[in-house]
Amino acid sequence: MTNGYRYIGKDTARKDARDIVTGKARFFDDIKIPGMLYGKVKRSPHAHANITRIDTDRARCMPGVRAVLTHTDIPRWEWGMPKHIPILDSKVRFVGDAVALVAADTPDIAEAALDLINVEYEPLPAVYDVEAAMQIDTSPIYAQFAHNTYPDEPPSFEPEMLGHIRIGDVQKGFDEADFTIEDTCGYEIFPNPLPPEPPGFIATWETPDCLTVYTPSQSIAQVRLIGIPFIGMADIRAISTQCGGSYGTKNANLTPMGYAAVLAKATGKPVKVYFTKEEHFHSYSLRLGSRVRARVGIKKDGTLSAISGVWMVNTGSGSESGPLQIAVGLGEVQLVLRCANWDLKGKLVCTNRSPSGIVRGYGGQELESSILPIIGRAMEKAGINPVDFFKKNSVKPGNGYFWREGKWWTYRGIDFNTAIDKGAATFGWKEKWKGWGKPTAIHGNKRIGVGVGVHSNADVGEDSSEATVKLTADGRAVVYCCVSEAGLGQRSSLCKMAAEVLDLPLERVTLSPPDTQLNPFELGLVGSRGTYAVGSAVIAAAEDARKKLLEIAAHRFKSTADQLETENGKIYMVGRPDKKLAWHRIMGVYHSVTGEGRFEPDYSLCNFLMTFVEVEVDTETGQVVLTRMVNATDAGQVIAPKVLEGQLHGAFGSAGLDTALFEETVLDETSGRMLNGNMVDYKWRTFADLPDVKNVILETPMPSHRFKAVGVGEIATSPGPSAVLMAVYNAIGTRIASYPVTATKILNALGKR
Amino acid sequence: MNTRQNDPEQERRTIHLKVNDKDYALAIGDTVGAVAPSDTLAHTLRETLGLTGTKISCDQGSCGACTVIMNGKSILSCMTLTIECDGARIITIEGLADPATGQLHPLQQAFVDNSAFQCGFCTPGILMSTKALVDQNPHPTRDAIQHALSGHFCRCISHYEVVDAVCQATTTEGDHD
User: In which band, very low, low, confident or very high, does the pLDDT at B101 lie, cut at 50, 70 and 90?
Assistant: First the structure.
């Protein structure tokens, strides 16, 4: 659907496409700063222990070693939400936690020096289970968190935060219910979103009060925003390299920045800390663990009358943004489960697992994957088809919900039921759905089952964005907006929006480098905010610049600005395209014209995705194969068709749907070690295993900005896991209530082991 | 060649590589610009020759990111020691486009046209495996493409677009060399 646009909705090569296919794109490890040293981290073999002695003498004496730091050598800088994660501490909290830091002339020397550091530990009891952690009343993992439970304090930037959905009267709701279900379900596999490029930071102190960092980031402004309070309020200039995948994990994890910053301080040199893949597995953000104990009341017609319970969130050894993820998750769940009576409380708990943090799905995927299987049991009791249930209970125009900042919002967007219907028809849901616990077909040992999952998010208009657009006399435009490229294609899409507004050839519109020093504030590509929130600021800046330019031109044309048009860097009066004046004739070659744009948070619009899946279960081997997936959504207006298709294909990867099939980190609870922290033992989808996939993308104009679009990319991973669990139940008729559905679990469920 | 005859001892301590049609003679040793016995080919390409288009991701031979073509075959450069490569002819991602005109190889162009990447970190390795495939089999089936790329980790899931791109590049008229 072109809608008469020049670029919007049309496929154009991504601006960085040539650099990517020729190897010219500069990712983190391709950057070198003169005089740069290499930092390495000595890591803990214990899951929980006090450090009783560290001997660094031999390491310090090694030729080429420039600094060796322990917790006694550095300031007590902390980050996290709330601030609690120190750079180094007198204790360790997970296997792989940092004990000491080394900076040396080469990575090999730094690595060798780590072996010369001797550490003595006093081991402490470790805990990995969320409920067991809450029972501990002495010696918590962090002294300030009694019962290993984080306080219910909102962070400084959000005065209120949703930690508990309280709506109506649940007792009344249960009284009105025809059926009540009580159950517990967990999504506690701690998968690694595992971008191909490991995390890293180069830090260099330009002055004692100003740190410059280079990092592959999804949201470079966040490094400055949360980094400044972390490093004792010194200034930060944050520059993003091309980012080799993030999926949320390279938004706000400041752990490697802390290492690089203190080593750079100690040596007076730029220091690079680049995690190995092993560190990436063991010592970096995993997906949060989630367990829901809930009671659900449902009426015969599929109306949810009450939901109550507790959502226990296991953040491992540190909360990167746990309270906010709980807030967003609690907001999102209301968008897919309309219910008059709620009492669902989030609890954030630390354990001695590796730290967890921001991952695509951001709380919502974790909550939905835990609660939807319980809701499924209620649907089954009521005898309702899940597609009909979600059509009835997903957000509709005029519905209200509490969003993350605790305020009540009313949805003013479009009805997604048309997308659901189109998706169902494409998938063949009507023909394939045979009822709860009933297979679609049985072929010998193979049982076919179908399932469906949903996700909806009001984060499309999340947080603030600022942009400026500079028009230059030579007929070009530069968009200044602090946006990094982590694979979302958004840098190119924003150029398309500006080119459309200014009616310029796309190649004449460029975006500034992702550098906090050069650009106005822009929170970053978190959630699905790129299209609406960031896009709105860029569109407004382009419109403002255009208006200013035409106002200047009006003097020349002896007309009013609204009688003028600009096209390809030339201005003419409407109806007189033969008489054109180039921009330099209007503004003069020594001038430029700059427009400004800003977006303020708006949580009254949502995106939506329903994922239909078909699985084939082998009852002899227990193997589950995903054979078919249909994603159905309505994006309002597609900006870049192939880019959107690609993001929806991302449903499998980055700790998405495949967490229901085979992805998990396996912990040895006797030692606290992750057993599959490498790319052979950790399972991932290969090119040899591609199910049949179809994306159904509708374009019903959305009341967002000039192009009527909302972003949808982030949520691709979220509906899949619970859909797979549902499909497996339908295939084999026995419910499996944990992820992933391994062959062992299937055979156990079938009584074959 | 003359040096080889002139000073066999020095030659024994030199690694000759032809990378993207350019000849390199690298001393074996620990000095700057030399090849240490423990240096992988990935390390040499990136750090010694400055060809950073080849990516290192897992550095243990299980993700395919570091794939280059050596003597006509796709290999994992993170699992190959440079000192074992004396006399090898190597093509990296930097050698795929036409060096004179800068024109993209048809495979590269098909990747651009199909948006066959998201973050792009795995793309150089995938392109090199694909190049090795089409050099052997100019018109591969979808199955053959999937099989040839099965060792490549792509976490954004651009698999579908990659297979489409390779199909497009190999079903149209064109020279894949």
Answer: very high
